[in-house]
Design a protein that fits this description.
9 helices, eight-stranded mixed sheet, 8 strands, alpha/beta, Rossmann fold
């Protein structure tokens, strides 16, 4: 058990007061390691809340730099950060909120050659990327290395998310077998996105990470949660692990990681 300082007891008092969390749960958070893939619209709020919650080690992967068009939704970056590497901009704000945590930065593009070396040190992964090849890569690597992760996606006024616990729940490929054809689905840079949607979904993903670490509540496993901000309708669709899934099924055909041909340059293309 961690020997909490008086400053820590005060900082995390609202967690410690929660009957389901308490000192033991906060100790789990301080000992946990969470990786955020993408310091964009989803990764930004997730990074802030995970830092504030006291996740002991937070990794953040992003190869991009801050652009002025990011500021409408990527709340971890400020106007002064334009042209700064996103991972460094995010780290600065995370440590400003909570200097008692460790933030590890990876200013690089995830690919089949490096992803497993990066993710294997973490307990949970938050996927905040805006392109299908990277989403499939994260899914496949996490399934292979038995690392739980949160999938998230936003476009226009809509968001969706699910949590995957390899070996226990359905994975991303159980329902989305392969990336769609190039340009079949527009990106946020093409179709737009309501800025607050990113905050809504990224915060849900952070909550899933905190719930996983503390073992509190029910995760969004075998469940696709979607919502529309125009109507504020939320919908849950029950999913089921598929026996014929190409990676987590009974006879997997995806046995090694590949970079899908539609993957674009060394850029995670953040929401």
């Amino acid at each position: 058990m961690i020997d909490f300082t008086s400053e820590q007891l005060e900082r995390y008092s609202r967690h410690i007061l929660l009957q389901d969390v308490g000192v033991e749960g906060q100790a789990k958070l301080l000992g946990a390691k969470v990786l955020i893939v993408g310091a964009g619209g989803l990764g930004a709020p997730a990074a802030l809340y995970l830092a504030a919650a006291g996740i002991g080690t937070i990794g953040i992967v992003d190869s991009d730099t801050v652009e002025i068009s990011n500021l409408q939704r990527q709340v971890v970056h400020f106007t002064k950060d334009i042209d700064m590497p996103k991972v460094e901009s995010a780290k600065e704000k995370m440590l400003a909120i909570n200097p008692g945590i460790e933030v590890k930065t990876y200013q690089e593009c995830l690919n089949a050659d490096n992803i497993r070396a990066i993710i294997r040190d973490y307990d949970f992964v938050v996927d905040g990327t805006d392109n299908f090849p990277t989403k499939f890569l994260v899914n496949d690597a996490c399934v292979m290395d038995n690392i739980p992760f949160s999938h998230g996606g936003i476009l226009r006024f809509d968001g969706q998310t699910m949590t995957v616990v390899p070996g226990k729940s359905a994975c991303y490929r159980c329902f989305f077998r392969k990336p769609p054809p190039p340009d079949a689905v527009p990106t946020c840079s093409q179709a737009g996105v309501l800025g607050a949607i990113a905050g809504m979904l990224g915060t849900i993903q952070a909550a899933e990470a905190l719930k996983y670490v503390t073992e509190v509540g029910e995760l969004l496993t075998d469940t696709l949660l979607s919502f529309n901000a125009k109507t504020m309708n939320f919908r849950k669709v029950t999913l089921q692990k598929q026996k014929n899934c190409p990676i987590c099924g009974e006879n997997p055909t995806v046995t090694e990681l590949i970079d899908e041909e539609q993957a674009l340059t060394c850029n995670l293309r953040q929401y």
